[in-house]
Design goal:
single chain; mainly alpha; Rossmann fold; Arc Repressor Mutant, subunit A; DNA binding; transcription; Transcriptional regulator; transcription regulation; TPR-like_helical_dom_sf
């Protein structure tokens, strides 16, 4: 990338004359800067922000790095480059590596790259010895830049302890992190109120500093009219110094401060000589004034002397560096509007001359802005057509798009490359229909003019739309035509390499992975430069080499990103979007969800709704694999993705969410809905000839058929899909087909089919590294992993891969057993008793006898021990004789076994209920899942964890399982009373710590939620009242905090006859006296 021009005037504080007075109150506040990591100063124009900061720099004994931001710094690369150079003023060796990396960037900076730049800047600053102060003045010029905003938020979050950042802007940044920093005492905020001149300060300035004779009433009226606005007060002083009477100003009573300013500015201007007036008005078209620029634009000599004179007279001209000035923005606007109204022809001519000067000096963006101001669309079109490509590469999409929207259609017809630029921007923003229209206009004009290059890149743009949205059939014809045309233009190796890369990607999208890979190898042999759109990882994904795909993508994330090309939004190819689906295929559900969430965030940040929609469908895949989420959440994720694709008019993008819905509905035994969703997805993929995704969708339809026991339909689909996966070269797909065919053979007792397919399945598992299939839930694997176990026992019996099968059975924990029911027994005890056999919920009628259910509840409650028959009799049949109780026990036990193991062979041992002599209990090796045990595990871990963030995550995970009291239907049974109370206390302790941790993390809403949850269970839990009082106080809701204290007093007195403890009363005193509560927890 070309070097960013460094304007040294931006890296020094503006020069301040002696006439500026030190304001004691404001300067005292600024002196506390050394105690804060972040200072934010915000007010409207003319309130003296830059002046106050400059005086602070002059008066303090600290070294400050100053950066005056301009409107041309609204891209992350120039912003960071100038920031580094600002720091280098004080530390000349600072940021060498960072500058080198920034110079290497020539494309759009993506979300993951921003993280890397934050890390590099933080690490560089950490190496600076001693405290470092950085002032970013006029930050409002770049507040609209999403990349800068994101970088700033992450940078502030990880600000080194030796760094103090001072931000000055016309608007307060709307960053949520600022609230957290302020609560923690890490943010100093200086507002417009702090910058207002008080009546006393005005009196001191007028009477003592300027030695004017004004009555108290006049001073009061000056303060009333100016409202403490510094620039208006300064203009009043100038009027008084020139001997004018204030009565007209004070009696005019303007409707707004802007009216006041315009009136005063007119008065100031009218007192200048004709030559000075003319100079002021003519140079108002310039942002930065230098003698050389003014001489050129005005066609004169002597600008240097004029600028010096104006600066000495304080005519709203600020020296930003040696011989470089700028008008105060309000005064500039006043002068420029006046010039435009009085002499419009001259006004336009001045802007054109300024544009020529900037163009000759290489500042094309400023030149374009000058031309835009006077609607010189002819010359503006020329410059944008020449410079637009560079703006695209540098990621200045918004600025370029705004220029393009201004240009008339007739100018774009004359410069058709402009239509191409507009199409590129719209494609990056996922506005595919509008982008295609722009490309076609460019294509038409290129064809009519026999401009093969323009014609070719317009076709390339259209092909990229079809690559972005995975429509290989549409892309193939257009892409081949683009290649043929480009070959006629003597294109560079880089351009041809880009097109051939696109061709290889399209082959992959069409399911021709082998051809795509061989072409890529050929391209590398020819040393053709290739783009990096994660094609290699996608190639591995679509051929079943999941670990290699994951490795390639993770290495890319870990590399310094700017050692490679940095691309604009990559649609479905984004690294995190790909990692999410690969993780889901490999059963890494938590990672899959995290990557998908990152993808959504990235899509929002880079303004790519297509990427965001891809993130939503991938979250749907992830949450399907996680027991803690309801199936409705996955459905909502898929529906969100479908709605976004509908709005984008990208029909092909609906295929994958329909695939997810197909397998979701199938697992819920809703066959017709599953089939409908599958057919809809298949319609999209077959339209564009995406064989690989078509095969996956048909696999999902086959799985849905299996769940719904439609064996013949499933076998027909699997047979077809097997051939398609062979054509795609996808070993993972072939492994899945073999598993489900073996599963089908097992359940339909087709031993020949089972033997053939289980052999193929086990062979593929061993040779391709898919062992995770036995241990983790995967997108296309069984919902219940224990579905695999009976198949393994049968394979062992048939001596198929005997050694390997025995090892897998042993690793799964069933080495000492010889049979398995083929599903997981899941037991919910908190809130109500619910039993699930695999994916099938046991209904109340399935129990046959009430005592069978009660017997199971007893065994669950006493799961850590085996109960003798006599103990069971005492608990369940205390009033019966032993013989009668024994008879009742046998009936109940038989009904229980039929309920939890409906397919158990006669006289076979139970898998879930272990019998040892006359003792009975749950089999701990059966792999059953019990919600109360999981709840206890997570909450106990959270109680022991010291790190606030980790403790919060553990406790939230555990407490979410507490749906209510343990076995509420047995609330009168003595044998479960202790367990119920024990779990209640554990819940209260966990909720209390979660509330306390939330306070430490400044998450007061969460604290309030759990505090109230505690009191619903135990209204005498005093710590909950303290936490609620503190949280409401921190939320500036003191009345609510007081109400909770009074409620605490009433409850403790009524229930226990005691008063609140000292800590509670102290908290109340804090609330009432507004003392500092930072250190409560």
């Amino acid at each position: 990338m070309e070097r960013i021009p460094i304007i040294h005037t931006q890296l020094n504080p503006p020069t301040i004359k002696d006439r500026f007075v030190r304001r004691v109150k404001l300067q005292r506040k600024l002196k506390t800067v050394i105690r804060y990591p972040l200072v934010v100063m915000h007010s409207g124009a003319g309130y003296g922000k830059s002046t106050a900061l400059t005086l602070f720099v002059q008066d303090s004994e600290i070294d400050v790095s100053w950066f005056s931001i301009s409107q041309n710094d609204d891209d992350l690369v120039p912003f960071l480059t100038k920031l580094v150079h600002a720091v280098r003023i004080q530390y000349p060796n600072f940021g060498e590596t960072l500058l080198h990396e920034l110079e290497e960037i020539y494309e759009y900076v993506q979300d993951q790259h921003i993280w890397s730049l934050v890390s590099m800047m933080v690490n560089e600053l950490s190496r600076v010895e001693g405290d470092l102060y950085v002032i970013l003045d006029d930050f409002h010029h770049v507040e609209h830049s999403l990349s800068i905003e994101q970088w700033m938020i992450h940078f502030i979050e990880h600000l080194p302890s030796n760094c103090h950042l001072i931000l000055s802007s016309r608007n307060k940044p709307q960053w949520t992190i600022l609230n957290s920093l302020k609560v923690k005492g890490h943010l100093l905020e200086i507002t417009q109120e702090d910058l207002l001149l008080s009546q006393e300060e005005m009196e001191h300035l007028l009477l003592d500093l300027y030695d004017m004779e004004l009555t108290n009433e006049m001073i009061l009226n000056v303060h009333r009219v100016t409202e403490g606005w510094a620039i208006a007060f300064e203009m009043v002083i100038q009027q008084l110094q020139s001997g004018l009477n204030l009565e007209p100003i004070l009696e005019n009573d303007p409707n707004s401060l802007q009216d006041l300013f315009d009136y005063l500015a007119h008065e100031v201007l009218s007192k200048q000589s004709f030559m000075v007036q003319q100079f002021l008005e003519q140079t108002s078209v310039l942002e930065i004034l230098s003698p050389k620029l003014c001489d050129y634009v005005l066609g004169m000599t002597g600008s240097e002397a004029m600028l010096d004179q104006l600066a000495d007279q304080h005519i709203f001209l600020q020296e930003v560096s040696v011989k470089h000035y700028r008008y105060h923005q309000l005064f500039k606007s006043f002068l420029e509007n006046r010039m435009k109204e009085k002499r419009p022809d001259e006004y336009r001519q001045l802007h054109r001359k300024a544009a020529r000067y900037q163009e000759q000096n290489g500042d094309m963006e400023t030149a374009i802005l000058h031309l835009e101001r006077v609607e010189d669309y002819d010359r503006m079109s020329q410059l944008v057509s020449q410079y637009g490509g560079d703006m695209l590469k540098h990621g200045k999409l918004q600025s370029l798009y705004e220029h393009l929207l201004v240009l008339p259609t007739e100018r774009k017809r004359h410069y058709p490359i402009l239509w191409f630029y507009q199409g590129e921007i719209l494609r990056y923003w996922s506005s595919y229909m509008e982008a295609e229209q722009c490309y076609k206009r460019s294509e038409e004009l290129g064809r009519d003019r026999y401009d093969h290059y323009l014609y070719s890149i317009a076709l390339e743009g259209q092909a990229r739309i079809y690559l972005d949205t995975i429509q290989p059939d549409q892309a193939e014809r257009i892409l081949q035509h683009a290649i043929d045309l480009r070959a006629q233009t003597e294109a560079s190796k880089e351009e041809m390499g880009r097109l051939y890369y696109m061709l290889a990607e399209n082959l992959l999208n069409a399911g021709n992975a082998t051809k795509a890979e061989s072409w890529l190898e050929k391209a590398r042999e020819l040393n053709l430069p290739l783009e990096d759109g994660n094609l290699e990882a996608r190639l591995y994904l679509r051929t079943g080499r999941l670990e290699k795909a994951e490795k390639v993508l993770l290495e890319r994330k870990e590399r310094q990103p700017f050692n490679e090309s940095h691309h604009l939004p990559q649609s479905h190819r984004e690294t995190d979007i790909l990692l999410s689906i690969i993780s889901a295929f490999m059963g890494k559900s938590e990672a899959s969800k995290a990557y998908a969430e990152s993808g959504i965030h990235q899509g929002i940040q880079i303004q790519s709704p297509f990427v965001e929609a891809c993130g939503w469908m991938r979250i749907g895949h992830a949450v399907q694999l996680m027991n803690r989420y309801d199936a409705q959440l996955a459905e909502r994720c898929y529906q969100t993705s479908l709605e976004m694709m509908e709005k984008l008019n990208v029909s092909r993008g609906k295929a994958e969410p329909y695939m997810g819905l197909c397998i979701l509905y199938g697992s819920q035994y809703e066959y017709e809905k599953a089939l409908e969703a599958g057919q809809k997805g298949l319609h999209e993929t077959e339209n564009v000839k995406d064989l690989w995704l078509s095969s996956l969708i048909q696999l999902c339809m086959a799985i849905a058929s299996i769940y719904c026991a439609k064996w013949e339909e499933a076998q027909a689909k699997l047979e077809k899909v097997e051939g398609q996966f062979k054509d795609c070269g996808d070993a993972y797909g072939l492994m899945l087909v073999s598993f489900w065919r073996a599963y089908s053979g097992y359940h339909t007792e087709q031993d020949d089919l089972f033997e053939k397919e289980i052999r193929t399945f086990l062979q593929l598992i061993q040779t391709t590294g898919y062992e995770f299939f036995f241990h983790e839930r995967t997108t296309f694997g069984p919902i219940d992993l224990q579905n695999c176990v009976p198949l393994l026992f049968k394979a062992q019996e048939m001596k198929i891969h005997e050694h390997y099968v025995s090892k897998v059975i042993y690793d799964l924990g069933y080495g000492s057993m010889d049979h398995h029911p083929g599903y997981t027994l899941r037991v919910q005890t908190l809130g109500q008793l619910t039993i699930t056999l695999g994916n099938q919920v046991v209904e109340e009628k399935d129990w046959q006898r009430g005592k069978a259910k009660e017997l199971f509840e007893l065994l669950v409650t006493k799961r850590h021990t085996q109960l003798q028959k006599e103990e069971i009799y005492q608990h369940l049949w205390p009033d019966q004789e032993e013989e009668g109780a024994n008879r009742s026990f046998k009936v109940a036990l038989n009904a229980l076994l039929k309920t939890v193991e409906p397919h158990r062979k006669a006289r076979a041992e139970s898998f879930f209920i272990k019998k040892d002599g006359n003792a009975y209990g749950l089999n701990p090796k059966s792999g059953y899942e019990l919600d109360s045990a999981i709840f206890e595990e997570w909450v106990a871990a959270g109680l022991e964890e010291n790190d606030a963030y980790r403790a919060k995550a553990l406790l939230e995970k555990g407490l979410a399982l507490y749906k209510g009291d343990f076995l509420p239907d047995q609330r009168f049974a003595d044998w479960c009373l202790n367990e119920r109370e024990r779990l209640q206390v554990l819940f209260l302790r966990g909720a209390e710590k979660l509330a306390q941790v939330s306070v430490r993390l400044q998450d007061f809403d969460t604290c309030i939620y759990w505090g109230e949850s505690i009191l619903r269970m135990d209204q005498t839990w005093e710590e909950a009242y303290r936490l609620l009082m503190y949280s409401y106080y921190q939320k500036n809701n003191r009345p609510q905090a007081i109400k909770w204290y009074k409620k605490c007093c009433d409850v403790l007195d009524r229930e226990l006859g005691v008063e609140p403890m000292n800590p509670t009363r102290e908290m109340y005193d804090i609330v009432m006296s507004a003392k500092d509560t930072e250190s409560y927890v």
